[in-house]
Fold each of these.
Amino acid sequence: MIIAALASAPGKAGISVIRLSGNDTIKTVKEYLSIEEKLHEIVYNKLYLTDFLNEGEFIDQVTVAFFKEGHSYTGEESAEIFCHGSPIIVRKILEALYLEKNIREAKPGEFTEKRFMNGKMDLVQAEAVIDLINSESDAAYISSTEQLKGGLSEELKKINAMLIELMSILELELDFADEDLDFTPNDEITGKIDIAVEVINKFIQGYQKGRIFRDGIKVALVGDVNVGKSSLMNAFLKSDRVIVTDIAGTTRDVIEEKIEVNGYLLRIFDTAGIRETEDIIENEGISRSRRIIEEADIVLHVIDSTDPSEDEYAGNVIKVYNKTDLEDVIIDENSVKISCKTGSGIEELKHKIVKNVIDEELTYRPYYISNVRHLNILKETVSQLEQAKMSIQQGQNNEVVIVDMRQALDTLGEITGETTSMDIINNIFGSFCIGK
Amino acid sequence: MIIAALASAPGKAGISVIRLSGNDTIKTVKEYLSIEEKLHEIVYNKLYLTDFLNEGEFIDQVTVAFFKEGHSYTGEESAEIFCHGSPIIVRKILEALYLEKNIREAKPGEFTEKRFMNGKMDLVQAEAVIDLINSESDAAYISSTEQLKGGLSEELKKINAMLIELMSILELELDFADEDLDFTPNDEITGKIDIAVEVINKFIQGYQKGRIFRDGIKVALVGDVNVGKSSLMNAFLKSDRVIVTDIAGTTRDVIEEKIEVNGYLLRIFDTAGIRETEDIIENEGISRSRRIIEEADIVLHVIDSTDPSEDEYAGNVIKVYNKTDLEDVIIDENSVKISCKTGSGIEELKHKIVKNVIDEELTYRPYYISNVRHLNILKETVSQLEQAKMSIQQGQNNEVVIVDMRQALDTLGEITGETTSMDIINNIFGSFCIGK
């Protein structure tokens, strides 16, 4: 079966790209082209200028390239059609192709899934493809690019090798259990398990930073009504995307805006002012605000310098004294003086937010895992390794320990795709866009 | 100077396309590629797999194709870069390129403008490119494709040839004015002018249909409040995109929805119910409705069959009796019985709309001009030809008539671009998208 889909973004443009992959792609696509006769000997990776015809009827002048099995993105015989960036032409070409018995619409992520299935990348790299496409900051770009290039896969291979070495020691001892050999002492084996756990824990701890690289820093703007939260949001954006008025309770829903600081994405949530109110909709906003504050990486407690609040917020809080053009205040190191009106202190505040949560420099480390799936698998692996260690300490025989170790290895293999169930694989690729 | 821009639609996708054109494109782009050394001898139209680097720093794995001067879209040396469809990667690649002294961002339509300037297509064909990209129906697609293939240009050449033949007769007579030759009788010349005018008028009259091919049929839904105009809109769309309520005056603004019937685009405008009201916003809606009705190709006067209105609307009107599931009515040939509730009569109504305005068959003719610029130029040409005819009839000498004829020829040449001012050309390409 050949799969086909629009691979460029939908919409009106100069060029659109339609991608096909599967056995007999070339033979099948050729029949739609006015230069069919010239194609008795295909030059791969060459752009052919040709008319695309549907049952002899002209659809568009296009360029077409063919890719050889084993030398394409998917690993299968493939083709790409470059047509005018007109949605109606894309529709006409795809409709013409789907009329073929052996061509069907590609499912989301199916081209990359084929690439994974054909062993041209592992699951971690495939996940990096979608992260790369979705990346909205330099940090997200760096993290997904490194992962795509195989940085994380290499690290995982090292952990895998450590566990396999442990397995082979245990299996060797099992094979020669009846003979009079010098067995590796138990505490040497548990020591090796500890080292593996330590390495894995470094990745688990790296998740916090990896998540920030990929998804950005969640910033909650909180404070009493009318202290200037929406004005601060506007000052961040240097625009007027948020409605600011003098009426208390204007911001009834949670508004999210994004800016980039030092390459990091800052996701700023302007929350409803928290106060007693009879307004049901506003109350709903306040309860959403509470959730936002709980999930935030950092809370900006905005305070009116002319009428400072005594409220305290829990968690990672920066006190932001606004209106300092009207009233000066004395601050500590967890506070910043700003004026949304004059713009003073805004840049300093942006950098303080980043410094507070992550190194200000954009220094990526291979153990900054960013995917919660990877995090959970690594946690599970650690717990299974600890189970193995406990079995040794309880004096269980090697068969039992080997079963524990095998489990840990299988769990670890779920990250790169070696032991991942088809359900999970489908789930991963299902989150891709169509045509990738 | 090399121009560069994103040529595929902006957004997250599998693939994005960046296009460059201008002298030294290949030499300049090569320096960004990891396979630079392998490119000492370029194979044109070949897709090279390579890393794209910015000052040695990896940006993305891309494919790149180079096009030879004279054999590219623009006619200049060109390149296309196919990268991951990630907006941040597109930004990084373009930013890296724009740092070059000899690369700048392309202006809207500039690639096609170069194609026109380099004589690879005329202005009529260039205008068809943007119409093709914007086309939203089969009719619009057919009209722009035919124009792009040169159908209209061919017809205009024929008219041009007729005028040139007339010119040569007049000039010949002028050259031999003193000699004793048999001059072409005046009424033979005015006869030839009449024929030319007749041909041009066929195109002028074709505009009405050409416009409908390109822009669709404007349908205005009118009638008293609560007769079911919004319900009819929903029935057309077979969805619930328009808010329908029982409160009179819900539809306060003009809502436009589009459907395709027999390949034609129907642009349906749901107008505010026209009635006396104190509501200022609603009154504004009503005055917009009046404008819509004036501009509509067809007016659907929706009538509640259980309480039929006596109102009459001027223009091309179909009376649409709704709620015929509740009350049957007797209708004439300009009326249709429907029920939005049961869906009966809706398909019949759609086809009646098309039949009423244009041939139901999607039969395109080369004289269906669709561009108001072309219409105005042709009207001007006719008026100048009539001026020439009048000069002849007034017994003016040939010099005067030749001036009139020359004007008509120059005016006609503005359509295809031969005599078009740079202002108008810039205006035309300025309406294109960037990257085309």
Amino acid sequence: MDNRIYNFNAGPAALPLPVLKRIQEEFLNFKGSGMSITEVSHRSKWFDEVIESAVERTRRLLKLDDHYKVLFIQGGASLQFCMIPMNLSVAGKSADYINTGTWSTKAIKEAEIQGKDIKVIASSEDKHFSYIPRDLKPNPDASYLHFTSNNTIKGTQFAKFPDAGGVPLVCDMSSDILSRPFDVSPFGLIYAGAQKNIGPAGTALVIIRDDMLERVPDNIPTMLRYTTFADKNSMFNTPACFVIYTISLVLEWLENDIGGLAEMEKQNRAKAALLYEFFDKSGFFTGTAAPDSRSMMNVTFRMPSEVLEKKFVAEALSEGLGGLKGHKSVGGCRASIYNPTTLDAVKYLTEFMAAFEAKNG
Amino acid sequence: MDNRIYNFNAGPAALPLPVLKRIQEEFLNFKGSGMSITEVSHRSKWFDEVIESAVERTRRLLKLDDHYKVLFIQGGASLQFCMIPMNLSVAGKSADYINTGTWSTKAIKEAEIQGKDIKVIASSEDKHFSYIPRDLKPNPDASYLHFTSNNTIKGTQFAKFPDAGGVPLVCDMSSDILSRPFDVSPFGLIYAGAQKNIGPAGTALVIIRDDMLERVPDNIPTMLRYTTFADKNSMFNTPACFVIYTISLVLEWLENDIGGLAEMEKQNRAKAALLYEFFDKSGFFTGTAAPDSRSMMNVTFRMPSEVLEKKFVAEALSEGLGGLKGHKSVGGCRASIYNPTTLDAVKYLTEFMAAFEAKNG
């Protein structure tokens, strides 16, 4: 283990150990180039292969057809919040949103700053975003319908994606991208900050459908146009090379070591089930998300008191279990169990929780 | 050398070998955290120390007083081209530019897209940007005066910065930031893509003065406002953690191993002099920049024919000298000799050039 901890951070988060070891091994001399991956030109054959691998692996894993482009854009999901209404809202049509928490709220705010006609068609704010709204009534005349597939802070996740008829879905998948297979065809745009399921911080992965590119106006700044990135294979300017390189290795691991998204989902379900089944039996640890909205990625929970929660987080860390503190805006505890987190790590955590309950319950 | 080459790439470019070795060494377990630097939270004490070190070292190296903030913003210099007019142009005042080549031209274009009132007060386009304009007549009523301190493509550099009276200077220093000491006080904003002198690709370093922050309008997207980054120490959202970490190590090397900017300039001058003095004696290799505008960072040159240039680049590479091809827009050859490039590397290059000339001249 090289004295490594079990890392339950919400993002930046754990990466697969074989990926980290490979980066370390080839760090001074990338594939015989005589240079570090951080030193090769983005216009070189070495980096061409890297970005090609990242794009093609994404295409294969998500079964993308030729109507989709895979882009890497710096600035995280937060920059996407403003690029989406700027590029994709159509005059005379509303920009529709489902509000399931902090990240959706921020996305809505950026559309508001731009003076867009916004419709929030559903929200779970009435119950502190502890659930995913059902029985949606999407508006058939919207420019798009935006939602956040997984809420990292509240530990909720869409089990089934909304059906918006022909209206393009636009989705922030930052915290569950590539964690399970799904049908991409209703989506006009999918975006994800890399630092949870697929790599280190420093780029967003953006998947965009042809017809969305046709909406991009000419009069917005070059670096804020999706067409700029689509036309130049994400290399209009120097991209976040090291981050894209790491993503390419994580996707290689996902294809070759894990065996693809169906197998990844199976493992993710098994990890989450361990924790949720434990909560359901425990009178001490309580899950905070509504049972039908529980996230496979971020498992949020409380204990009988904040004093106990603090003790739990500190004792867990001393046992090599890190990152279990809840988001500062909500308190409590959280175990983020993205793709790279192993079943063993989750088993070790539940064993520690059982022992902690026995001692303190 | 671990089979490493002498790397004369224009960017991404060579990094100091001791920095690369340290990254490699601590890659699986950053400072006893039990996590890779790519896995630690940006809200952790580990990353706090990293970004604090990067900021404080920049402050010390450039002798910044409390009126300046040091920020890290993703998207490279290209995103800054649009953020500058969006944030800093004042109604009723023109946005002024000096045009010394491709990058200045791109910066001007982004101000045009936004419909700003632009004045190009000087340009070297008449001679294919082979020189830096002199005898400037800055306009005392401008919002700012923008210039590019070093042109990577044409190998030209401002030896002395323009005096614009009280008008704030705004400068793209992507290719010569921290290569020499200078007086920061006339500058309202300095920006630099990291991937040349200070780190890997994936962030811009932005140095902004208080009074510029007061100009930032409220009605622009959150992620495009300098105040968003200034108010949250560049962590409104997850920053490019690995890139900032590497920058912090490069700046540590610059302070401790090199000994600061005055010493760095001395070394950079010595490296450039080796090449320019060689050209001045050679009848075979010819520098392309006007002698009074020669860059210490990017040394551009031609040979008697394109066939010879191609042969030179190929033979150099087989001798372990990489990245000597000129920018595709201008052809010819270029040796980029940023801070991390050693005097030994440049000596080896000039020896190779002399031998090549003897054989082919």
Amino acid sequence: MVSEFHYRRRVEFADTDLAGIMHFARFFVFMETAEHEFLRSFGTSVSTTFEDNKIGWPRLTASAEYIRPLKFEDVVDIYLFVDRKGQKSLSYKFVFEHDGELVARGEMASACCICNPGEAIRAITIPPELAEQIEEYRAE
Amino acid sequence: MVSEFHYRRRVEFADTDLAGIMHFARFFVFMETAEHEFLRSFGTSVSTTFEDNKIGWPRLTASAEYIRPLKFEDVVDIYLFVDRKGQKSLSYKFVFEHDGELVARGEMASACCICNPGEAIRAITIPPELAEQIEEYRAE
Amino acid sequence: MVSEFHYRRRVEFADTDLAGIMHFARFFVFMETAEHEFLRSFGTSVSTTFEDNKIGWPRLTASAEYIRPLKFEDVVDIYLFVDRKGQKSLSYKFVFEHDGELVARGEMASACCICNPGEAIRAITIPPELAEQIEEYRAE
Amino acid sequence: MVSEFHYRRRVEFADTDLAGIMHFARFFVFMETAEHEFLRSFGTSVSTTFEDNKIGWPRLTASAEYIRPLKFEDVVDIYLFVDRKGQKSLSYKFVFEHDGELVARGEMASACCICNPGEAIRAITIPPELAEQIEEYRAE
């Protein structure tokens, strides 16, 4: 069972804005990429099929708190924690660090949905193969 | 004194992702653009100078709650409300609608800062010319 | 028959990078949006169906030549010209101006394709309803 | 002397669009990141100082030719080649491959410029420390 993940990436030029720092909306893309690397780390993906249906994870909520700015070429450590495993949804918490200093915190919640082309999106119980691999993070 | 603003834009192709809907991080760019149009609507900008200093508004927090997906070419009505006018910060609330239906809600808080190139960013009292024009939104 | 189009938009904060100017890749998004506004201007869309197939326009080529930088809040006039109407493809030229001064030039070519989910993308003859409305631009 | 570079990255969710493939403008961001990784590989950066001036590399031209679509989670090999080393500019060619198959080709040219805040951008001769490390690629 997995409940946390570490992902590292570098701030790219296109992530910055005229203030010379990483644009605040890009933190959400970094969270999402950490989430997807987390899912790949145990052999699954955010974009899968289950019983011939296309499974996706539309966002329910997303938030960020910004502590320090990130600059171009900064290497960022993103720590993902499974905050809540619901029957039909998953919530993550994120901590961003640069050189060991706290940069930002984030949260994201997503619903497990059938997303077949041409059909209305509908929430479903998380497929057992996935649910069995993830557990909520418990700090010691 | 202004406390609310309406801004309308269309979902562009580059706003969408493979799920066929607007990517969740783009809602934050839409909020930001609404904020900047709001500031322009009474003659100022998010990027100004005050007493020879470059003023910027780094984000403190940002959040979104997603109710319904937005699709390519959807016209979105974004309603901005000044939620809190602090001495050194501003908080906004946002409501996203499409065809009169609620699509998403958002919040953003920013600190008024001196952002001179090569100097550390530092928070300041909102310049009076700006503070005098904005008031907190009070629902009737 | 239409062969040219004018589209105006403003450089947003998220379009800029740490150099303080519009990021060079964003010019391609601006060209694309001009193309889509052009198609909407005579009642169609880049994303349509034809004889029960989903029609899309994957890019064949795209290029830009940068003359002057664009800054945050600059209003940009984008002039689109139909450069070539092939049997299965369309090529556009773009001119970017700010305050009447040339900022950039661009080109984009796209193939008309059936893009049904789960099928390989394949090029088709441009549907006659569309082809009949567009003609190549001829400078007087 | 270096003249070529290999850089690998994965297509992220936010790189895709509703057509289910990587958005054509994102190829330019991938080229740019390859360029910046190339510069870092021999100890410099696209964003440096030289004799107390801030050096930047505004784009002169950029182009791409699209052969096959890239999908979410595809691993992309990007091969960079120094195509021309001018006195004040550098041109690169790029080849994109996925699983050994050609996906796209690209080109980018940039001018070496002094980009001090508040001053007009002006082209300069490439600083010798940089020019001495790069040479044009010559296929055997």
Amino acid sequence: MRLDDTLAQIEPVAAALAAQAQQHLDRLTKPRGSLGRLEELAKRYVAITGQLPPRLGAKAVVVFAADHGVAAEGVSAYPQEVTAQMVQNFLRGGAAINVLARQVGATVRVVDIGVATALPPLPGLLVRKVRPGTANIAQGPAMSRQEAQQCLEIGIALAEQCHREGVTLAAAGDMGIGNTTPSSALVALFTGAAVAEVTGYGTGIDAATWQRKVAVITRALAVNAPRPDDPLGALAAVGGLEIGGIAGFFLGCARYRLPVLVDGLIATAAALVAVALQPRVKAYLIAAHTSVEVGQQVAWRFLGQQPLLDLGLRLGEGTGAVLAMPLVEAAVRLYNEMATFAEAGVSERQPPQ
Amino acid sequence: MRLDDTLAQIEPVAAALAAQAQQHLDRLTKPRGSLGRLEELAKRYVAITGQLPPRLGAKAVVVFAADHGVAAEGVSAYPQEVTAQMVQNFLRGGAAINVLARQVGATVRVVDIGVATALPPLPGLLVRKVRPGTANIAQGPAMSRQEAQQCLEIGIALAEQCHREGVTLAAAGDMGIGNTTPSSALVALFTGAAVAEVTGYGTGIDAATWQRKVAVITRALAVNAPRPDDPLGALAAVGGLEIGGIAGFFLGCARYRLPVLVDGLIATAAALVAVALQPRVKAYLIAAHTSVEVGQQVAWRFLGQQPLLDLGLRLGEGTGAVLAMPLVEAAVRLYNEMATFAEAGVSERQPPQ
């Protein structure tokens, strides 16, 4: 699926259906509005899918893994080989995302979109390597414009595949040592916030490393001079291969009206890229959780959403997104399974005395 | 099970085991602490149950239903018969709590501990009626001291039954038109907050009714003069039958080291009663969600916990508690199922450069 075609095919969500859904919610045996954000979620699900009543099918999380040339600047607490090691951990089912996905009945799909290390043939691994890691953004662009487009189209194709296979609730996750650095760069660029305000401690760096990280991001933005009105160029300049894949996945989800939960800083930076490419995408994204990473919080304020969960997570992999899946499922089930006042023979509210 | 015996048999949670659990969590393939509150939850689960590794068994929510004489003061948006109607809705599986419990695989146990209306024999209903509704607390005590003790002992017995039947994660819910009024009275009493600061809009009253509700609670506290250092007397004076049942349930859960999620305002008021009776109970309670009801938020600040979810709920029934069950389950599964760095062959963090 080509990027241009996808951007053109994304429709606005079905706002009129959401209003119809509210009427049904008001007939269910509960005080009006008493299910709070779950009612909101049910309506958003209806608007996104364009279907009434809403239907639940399969769930999937797609984890995009890639490396970052900027890791050479010493911005992470972990060595670069961890990216490839964690890919193998994902495929063996031992990582946090595997545990959480098993619990909610979601499949985990692991994509090598740019791991630096050569991986042995691994059963289950989706090999879509655009290049073996990005170049160092502190010195020049992460990748070419063409490679950035390739990442987006890989993500779109994976969303299309989810849709084709009956997935009705999706999430995207990331793995890539050093990837909070390009993500914070993208958040600074698209939101206009200061670099220090969107830079966090990643997997656990100390204060001196944080200072270096801020300096590296500042340099990357100066050297590459990305522009927020050229999101493809910005992704190529200061982004990452997995960030591009996730951004494309969000575009594809919007294209196929597939509700998708957005995870932590990396996924949220990808969401900014996707929304910059096509503003209609915003209404298709569901903010799953508030990350400890400050840049993620800045990005959601910019995008105008309050995430569903706030559990102090800073792991990535799609973990926060998958943890929020039961809430979306609850919203849809309440909509479909609760009795109405009439069905249950329950009295409605009395007029004020 | 007698109240006095139960209070005496509640042990402190196993704090030493929680420290041991943290060591295991630090060996799992994730940056230290990156699972945030889920790591906290896993440790609390271990401390509460006193078992390493933690085990997951069955889940249950016990919904206590009762009526309130104070409804005669016009403090609710719904007529009193709704309590009995909703009990029947629970038994037919059409209420929000049924839908959410089905989703997470929890059983729903419905207890008539004091519904005013005579209910027909209903399959599945646990009849433990202490009296057909409380007396009007604006004019005198809700019930006798002996009846309050009976409510607590019913709750204890139901927790004991859950424990015996293999439940390892419990929740308590409420149904009772008018029950935010006694609950706010108890929160004001135990936390020392002003009545207006702990009184909310219940199922959806208007501003004039809210004013009346504040006046009614103020009168109830003046007429009955309950004392926070006499929690049994306070429950009898300005409490409710389902509030007593839930408070007893929490005592029983603590006695049997059964992790229990605390729902909204009514359950949290019951938690205050239970903790006043035996301060060790506090460490056994897991705050599930932040209710729209302001009194609940005041109570959790007093009890020193930040609830897990904040979804704008104001329904009761145990809905918020059951919505948080997957988070507790996730914490335990992550503890048990994630690979360690050594098992997965993943490099640990490098020393700061």
